[in-house]
Structure formats: C-alpha cells, structure tokens
Protein 1
Amino acid sequence: MSISLKNIGKSYGAVKALSNISFDVKQGELFGLIGPDGAGKTTLFRILTTLLFPDNGEAKVSGYDIIRDFKDIRSHVGYMPGRFSLYQDLTVEENLNFFATIFGTTIAENYDLIKDIYEHIEPFKDRRAGKLSGGMKQKLALSCALIHKPRVLFLDEPTTGVDPVSRKELWEMLKRLQQKGITILVSTAYMDEASLCDRIALIQDGTILKIDRPQVIIDTFPSKIYNVKADSTYRLLQDLALYPDTHSVYPFGEYSHFTSADPDFKPSDLMRFLQEKQHSGIEVSETPATIEDAFMELSKASELIDN
Amino acid sequence: MRTIIFLLVKEFKQIFRNKPMLVIIFMLPIIQLLILANAASYEVRNIRFAAIDADQTPYSRELVSKFRASAQFDFIAMYPSEKMGKEAVQQGTVDVVLHIPQNFERDLQKEKKSQLLVTINAINGSAAAVENIYVTSIIKDFNKTVQVALRNAADTAQKPKEVIAIPLFWFNPELDYTTFMVPGILVLLVTMVALFLAGMNIVREKELGTLEQINVTPIKKHEFIIGKLTPFWILGIAELMVGLVIAKIAFDIPMVGHPGLLFLFASVYLLVVLGIGLYISNFTETQQQAMFLAWFFAVIFILMSGLFTPIESMPVWAQVLTEFNPVKYFVEVIRMVMLKGSSLKDITPQLVKLGLYALVINALAVWSYKKVS
C-alpha cells in the first residue's frame, strides 16, 4: 500500500474536523477525495504530509509512519497546497531551482519527470512567479512538487479557481504521472472530476461516506433519477418538495433532479401534479445517475443517521 | 551547507527585488538619525519669560535685565499686575513669570533678605525642572552681585569665604547633547531594522503560505533559521556602518575607541535581537500581530535603555528589569567606546552577559520553531 490510514481523527477545539478516517491507496493509483468545502480534505492532506499530527489513529505514507518517520516522508512526497505557495518575487526558474536545492537534487537530474509540464512554462522562466497566469502558476507548482521525484503526490484542490482548459490539461498531466508509477491523492469539490479518478472517497463533515470506483458508485445508485424542468425553476423546486412521493429533489444545472420514494412511480403522475400547480413548459425524463447524485443521496442518509 | 548558501542567495534576491523596502531599510534610519540627533535633547531653550516689577527700583530692574540678557530666556513682556501674569501662563503664551514684590530693594538692604515669586508652567515636568534650575542660577548670580555691593558699603573687613565648585565634564567637555544622543540613536536604528525585519520576514512566509511548502521539504530547522536570520544580521551591521559614517560626517561625533570593538559587540547584540524577532514570529500568525508584539518589546527596551532617561533614576525593580534589556548594554557600550575610548577589557562584562543572552534566546527560538503544528 502506498498510503494507508486507520481511524485517523483530528479536532480543532470542539470542532471535529476528521473522525475515524480509514482507507488505503494502492501503488500507482489515482485516488480522489471528493467533498464540499469544509469537509476536512485539507486537514487530511496536512496530516498525511506531516504538517499536522492527528489526535488519534495511525497512517503510513510510502511505508513510513506519519508520526515516527515524518522526516523520511518529507523526502519522498510532493505536496501542492490549494493556495499558490511559491515565492511570487522569484522567477519561474529560481523557484524550481530553490526547491530542487532544498531537496538535495538539481533540475537536470529529474528533468524527464517534469519535462511535459515544465515545457509549457519554460518560455517564461525569467518571469516572476507572481506575474504568471493561474494555469501557469499551477504548472509551476506541480513542477516544484515533482522536482525531487516523489513516490506519492498530494494535490489539494488543484483545480479550484482554474479555467476549464487548464483543468483538463492538469488531469491529463496527472494521468501521465500515474503511468510513471507515482501514487496520486487528489482532492476536489468538483463532482464531475471524480470520474477521472481510479477510485474515490466521498467525504463530508469529517467522515467518509463511501469509497469505490466512480463507475461502481454510479451503477449502484439505488433509485431512478428524473430530470424535471418547468419555466419557473424556483416555484418548481418548492412544489416538487410538496409532492407526496418525493424522496429527494435538488437543482442540477437547468434541471431539477428528482427521485421518488414510491417504487412504482410514474412520470405522468408527476406531470399531472405540476399541471395542477399551474406550471408551464413541464419536462420529466429519466436520466443516468452521477457522482453528485450519489453524494447527495449518501449525505442525506448520513444526516438522517445523525439526527 | 549548500542549502544554507542557497537560502541566503534566495533571501537576498528577495530583499533586493523589493525596491521600496530597500529604500525604507536604508533611508528611514538616516532621516531618523538626522532628525532625532538634532531634536532629541534635554536642553531647554527659548523659555518665554515675563516679569512683574512691583518694586521699580535699580535692584529690581537689575534682576530683570539679568534674565533679559540670558541666552535661555526670551523676554516676552513686563506685566503691570499679577493677574495678567497668571492669565499669560494660563493661555500658554509664557513659560516663566517672575514676580518682584514691593519693597524688594529695601528688604534686601535692611534685612539682607527678600522674597521672589516665580511661576513656572509645569505641563512638561522635565522642562519645568530644567527651567527652575536656570531661574535659580540667575537669581544666585544676582545675589552674588548684590552681596558684593552690600558688603562694599558695610564691612569690608569680613572677606567672604565662598566655596566655588567648577564642574569638569569628562568625555563630553562641552556637555554637547548631540554627542551624547547620536550613539544611542544609532543603537535604536540597528535594533529596529533587525527586530522588525526578522520578525516580519518569517511571519510573512506564514501568511503567504510559502512556509507550509518549505515545511514539507526535508530542510533542517537550523538550516532554515540560519538562512532566514543571517541576511538581517548582515543588514544590521551595514546599517551600523552607514550610521557611524553619518555620525562622523554630519555631527562630527568623536570615535575615541576602536570601531572594531563596536562591530564585535554589535555582532553579538544582533544575535540577541534577531533571536527575539524569531521568537516573536513563532508565536504569531500574521504580520499585524508580529508588528504589535515587536512594538511592545521595542518601546519597553528603548525607553528603559538609559537612552533618554538615566537608569540610575529608575525605581529599583525597574533597574533590575533593565538587566534583561539588550538595548541597555549596547547603549552603554557604544557610548563607552565612542566617547570614552573603552577597551575590550572594559566592555567584557556587557559582552559576556549579552553572549549568554544570545545563547538562551536563540535556543528558545529554535526550540519553539515547529515544522509540524
């Protein structure tokens, strides 16, 4: 196992940031940590990168214990924090050189690993890091996190605030790094990125809701999902909540995703109900489940348990 | 070693790229030195003086004219009544009012004594104390003249047996306040640069998030700290050098002792100040917090350093506290070396104390610096 956690817990005063987190990430796996802001993703990253000690539980990264062998971990992992954390007043090349030096290596030594990524920003190597665009900053940060040839790469929300093209490029880069045998743990709040991971853990309020391959999570979604649309979206959501058989309803782009508590649910019944409520432009059609649907369903279930 | 050198290079690049900051680091202390050296002085000049002469005799006029002739006093007016004198002090247009009562001359001649009323505006206590001394010395001087006159008239046989003390001010013969203040102000400037820059620098990396990125690298604690503090140690020494040159050129401050001694002492002193800066940065999260904490220490250290008020006049508990004030030692030593020409042997006690201080504070700072929270 490249990363393994057992019952990791961490509290900030009375706030429980993480409780009983356990999972394993295999060597060379691209593992996604999916959850909303405040779910505890960053805390978990800080624990695994030895910036923070957990209150309880144990974890190993690349075979090293996060508490006992924290010094070894630092030489063997790459960490890209959610916030751009390089020196804005140093140039692209100086930043890369700096991190290479403090890891006791040189750019030339591991150039093959970062070549694909660094090539994009090499023309701007004399530009100060603070003057780069968001996507270029991202590539520089990734290059710096890779310069010492880490066995495990931690990326905390690498796509937050990044344009769609750069997001796509980043995921392609991660896929290529994975092929070079690097284990990657990546977190994101974008559910649509989940399908790009080998396996994902859905996390909310410091607990893990589910761990599996994205496709399995979608395939095992328990009920049928319907896309519902009407001219007045706001009124539609309110009225759907009043429908007696409603199990869940929440906005999903231009549609509302609706599931019924009744196993024999017929779309025509719902259409009639909405017509009675004076809605116009009504559409009801079945749609395949997504990770987001699964997440909403699971978080609803966990809330029920909590209450 | 390679890592430390690389850290130093990086730190200096960052310092020299921050052009406005560089100007602040070197220009502000120079301006401060020029302003403070001329302004910060215990001398009280241009005391606004008024008199009420109810006697109107040769003696009373003689006394008033002594004040008018004095360099310290600016004569404002003669007031016809005590009421007007009081009003003038109330309004703040006059600092000192001398009230000569009626029969001043007669009493002096007949009874050999007379009384004078002096009103001093004591809003600023220390200025008032100095003004009182000036007033007393002029009246004393007047007394002497009168005594001589009276004796001449009466018994010339009895020669006055007066003891006259002639003060000799060593190491600053003319009691020049600039000579006294400039070395102290130099200490203040070096302290500010080192304490604030070092404290702010690490906290800034915390704020920017770069410290977190550094903390996940295998860099050693001591490498990082040496890399962080050395640039400011060098800047502090450079600051002292610039300051000494200005002290010589602009104020012609003597350098009786060996300047090498000053730099030796400064190099240990800076270790203490940088250690305090590092300590502050370990316990703060933002530059704002660090700034206030640094100010807290700076104000206490400077006001209790003997730079502005003599330590000997502080209460005993405060004197004990000053033993832990690094600024005090440097102010002492810089004055000793520059004005008195003290040797290494003379400053050894201070040097040893400061050395121990440096050891303790840096050990504490390194120990409290944590890469893991």
Protein 2
Amino acid sequence: MSIESFYEYPAGIALSIFLQGLREGKLIASRCGKCNTSHIPPRSYCAKCLNPINDFHEITGLGFVETFTCSHISLDGSQAQPVTWVYVRFEGVEGGLLHRLDPSVAPEKALKVRPVYHGERIGSILDIKWFTKAE
Amino acid sequence: MDVYVAGVGEIPCRPAYGDLDFREMLYTAARKAYEDAGIHPSEIDGIVSSGMDFYEGISITDSYTPDQVGGRLKFNTLVSNDSLNAFIHGYMLLRTGHFRNLMVTCYAKPSNMLNYPEVVLNSFDPHVVRPLTPHPYVLAALDARAYLSRSGASPRDLSLVAVKNKKNALGNTSAAYAGATTPDDVENSAPVSEPLKRGHISTLCDYAAAVILTTDRRLGRFTVKGVGNAFGAYSSDLSSRMWGLLAWVRHAAQKALRMAGIGKVDFVEVSEPFAHTELMALEGLGIDGEPAHKTLRAGGYDLGGHLPVNPSGGCLGMGYPLNAAGLQRVVQSVKAMSRMGWRTCMILSSDGEVVDAGSAVVLTSEV
C-alpha cells in the first residue's frame, strides 16, 4: 500500500527574494547589518550573530568551483549519462550553490564560473540552466 | 554516577530479512540483550529508541517500539537521529538518577524502501537542492573530492579502507558483506560519482540492536567513560557545509576523551557509509598525529596496527544500517573488547550519510 503525501513549502522572506532574483536573472545574497557577513542563499537572520537581516544585494562577481563530481547515477539508482555537479562559492560571500556544470566545460577546482539562465524563468533554482566557465 | 553497559544483542546484518517484520527483528535483538545482561525485562525502567519515520515509512515510530522489547507501561522516548545519539540520551537519562536500567534500541530495514535515494533527498532543502534531484551519492562524492584535495590523499586510499574493512569483516559472523578483495578490485568496480566507485560505498543492510545501560555496578560489564555530540558545519541547503571535513568529530571526540580522562584508545569503531567518511572522521579525531591516509598506507589501522580501526569490518564490511549504524558500532565494540582483550575504544557515528553532525563515545572494559 502506498499513501501519497503532499506538502507546500513557503519560501519565506529571504528565499523569496532569492527566487525572485533568479526570475530576473540575478543572484541575490543577504548581508548582516551587524557583522557584515554576506550569505547565499540569503537568510533573514545571521547564523553568526543571530541578527535579523533585511539587507539584500546582487552578487556581480564570478563564482568559483570548490568541489565537483562527475555522476553516473540517476535519482532512481540506475546508470545514467554522466552529469558534472559543482559546488560554487563566491568571493566575499559565505555559503554557495549546488548546481550542474556546462557539459562542454572540463571541471576543475577553483574554476571561475558564471550562471547561465534559461530564457523563460519562473523563480526557481532551475532558472539556472547550469554554471559555465567564465571567460 | 557511572553508567555501564550491562548487555548487548543484535540480529546479524543481512541484505534483506524478507521473512521478518521489523518488530520481530527487534524482539530477537532485545531477547539477546536480556540474556547477555542476565536480567529480566521487568528490571528495565524505560526505552530509548533511535528511529526516523521517513526511513521507516511509518509515523510516530516510537509507538511501534515498546511491545517487542519489554517496554510496556514504562518510560519511552525516541531520538530521531543516529542510534549513538540515542545511546548518549540513555546515558544522560541514567545520570539524572531517575532510572536504574534502560534499554537503547534501533533497527533499520532499508529492504522495505523502494526509493531510498528519493527518501534521502527529502532531507534536503525543498527550494535550492531538491529540485535539482541529485542522487545522495553525488553529495557524498563532492565531499570525497574535497577531502582528497584537502588532505593530499588519493582515490586508492579510499580503496585501501574498503579492502581493510571487508577483510576485517571476515571474522564477524554479523557481517553481510565481508570479502577478500584487492584495491584493484575496488577501483575496477562501477563508477558511481567520481571519485567514488561502487566498492567505496557501504551497501545498505537490514539490522537491529539493543543495548542495556545501567547504573548498577554489579550488572556493569563495560563503563561508558565519556560521551560527546556536536552539530558541525552543516545546513539542509548545503550552504554551511565545509566540504571534505567532518567538523563535528573534533568537538564531540575531545569532549568524550576529556570526560574519560584519556588521550588514547586501543581501537576505534566508526560508522562509514563511504570509505572517505572513515578517513575524514580519523582526521577529526586527531589522536594519531599523522594524516589519516599516511597511517592507513602504513597499516596503522589494520587489525595488527597501532590503532585498529573498524576491526568489526565497519559498515563497508557489515552493511550500512542507516541510523542503526551507531549502535551497530557499540555492539561490535563490546564484542571486540570481550574477544580481543582490548580495554578502551572510541566509537564515532554521524547523524546521517552526508550530515556534518554526530556522536562520540568512549567505552572501557574496566568496571
């Protein structure tokens, strides 16, 4: 027997701003007014000093690959065409984003990358098609 | 007030117990623990169980526990985390003085799960991680790559861990995946998510365990000398993750060692859902003085080495029983101290496959 469960998750204040930014083709981070720490995805509180946050800013600099993997497995456990996953961080910003890497790019640690957006965007992490090598 | 282990019981790891319900598995483990401790179920004051509803596919897991372990009309609580975390909760409850004997229980029946990767994915952020649908092994592989880069270890070191643990498991009748393998065998296994090959990943297993804790010295066979738990650098959206590190280990292990008043142990049992998990935990433990992969290469973690690690075979050799991995380590530690004459051990277990949080326990054979 299987009982399906259905949930809706409001994104909250900070993450809604992040998702709206993606719809506009922008990466939005939060900045703590007390300790000045920037964080992506943005938060409405500072995990360092627990200060409330209402300052959000666009990340205009390039990202860089902290770690990567070429995966041969799909979510159902079956063998799949290789997909390269990267964890991307940004200079001067804490946190980061998991996403896919442009398949035409060879992954390497510290590779400078930028997001590539889909033409039609809905306010989702999937508005980013993948990260690609920044020229 | 000292807390002792009075007895342990388990049902051996198997790929699947198709003929047994999880309650029947737990009943068997509990019966063995009572027999091992030489006490009657009526002498138990309460039950602390480890369980995760989303793994088990049932709600309010602790309501399924008391009947089959002797817990009816007694104190009953659930720790929704790894079972070493539940063990520490049992320890702390006993230290309140309100209880004399408690049983800590856990089970895992991943053979019941038809979509394990999707279930695990549900533990991550629904907005920034889940829509990407990475297999959980992708996240483990990101960790493995970062660990190798950070430490200077090589993928072959991960294979050495797998070979060592599968070999150690040959002497453990509770192990499901023992074997005499070579590093080449592991490296020739199917690529999963680079640098991880299939042989670097612990295979899931069905398992149940029960441990009786007591403050009654007459019942004690081993002493819980120190405990520690810490949440590391982790968040469900992965943004707090320090890739390639288990930040929790140093904090939890140092606390446990300080409580125990010792700086060294005779052996280590560490839950390792992936080969690199063991090395990352040993780096965090830091009682060896050398980078973990160098000690590994020199045979220092072998059964005959200066610090045997996972003499039971660990999860690579025994099978990975999800949240039951911590108590799996406790039971194997007790068995090893009884069989090998070792006097002290460090037990480490993370609160999940790729979570930076976990527990440390120091056990001694002195009572």
